[in-house]
Amino acid sequence: MRGKSQKLYMTKKIIDMALENKEIAGMAIREIFFSGGEPTLNPEIVVYTIDKIIKENLNVRFISMATNGQIYNTDIVEAFIKFSNFRNAQLGRLKSSLEEKKEELIKVRPFAFIRLSDDQFHNRIPKMVNDLYESIDKRIKIYRTGEREEKQVFQTGFANDGATFEYKPENYTFEEDSSSNAILYVTAKGDLTLNPNGAYDDMDEKNFGQVEKANIRELLVRHCASKKQPVAAS
User: Fold this and answer.
1) pLDDT tens for the 234 residues of the chain, in order
2) Alpha-helical runs (H) found in 113-182
3) Which residue, 96, 32, 81, 34, is CA-closest to 59?
4) Exposed/middle/buried for 179, CB within 10 Å: 0-12, 13-18, 19+?
5) How many C-beta atoms surround the C-beta of residue 170 within 10 A?
6) Which listed site, 24, 32, 58, 161, has its alpha carbon 20 to 30 Å from 3?
7) Which H/E stretch holds residue 217?
């Protein structure tokens, strides 16, 4: 997000380790959010993750993605639609007969969301791409950032505009056999972190460990067990 950029791509191995079935299957994940860099430059990983969720029947309630809107990737869109169908079927919203199914699809709830970054800090979304997102299937909900006040936006990447970012620690506690409401980030390197808003160097240094070496629950329990007070992510 800040400082010198790194050319990194999420791998299938990291996805597999982060969503290790024996650890995740019984847990409820509210949302998996694909962020950047730019997710549409690595569509294979987005599709792979969604296919894994469906194949292993993981309890993921929503999926979402933030994009700069420069690319419309059909594979990603189709995967998002597939996920919404999967979630609606899980909830018993789809009927058995073909005619009933057609009627139910009209009322189908979106469980997949795409946020287009169309503020003044991003390049204008090409008309053709914008039109495709405008006509997207109703099983995907589209949001737009819209124009933002400078004070609402932190400087990121090589941007000169925006508010100055101050890296602050987040207090976090985790008890084994309990749930967590924290937002966890798995980086392209496989690091588990709470606050990825600093420079890449910060994330390399300040994290809970790598999902390739231990599953997410083990990393959190191990990290918090060594602390007698709430853990500071940074």
Assistant:
1) 555 667 889 999 999 988 875 555 556 788 999 987 799 999 999 999 999 999 998 889 999 999 999 999 999 999 999 999 999 888 775 455 555 555 555 456 789 999 998 888 788 999 999 999 999 998 999 999 887 776 656 665 555 665 666 655 555 666 655 566 677 889 888 988 876 666 677 777 778 889 888 888 788 777 776 654 444 443
2) 127-134
3) 32
4) exposed
5) 14
6) 32
7) helix 216-225
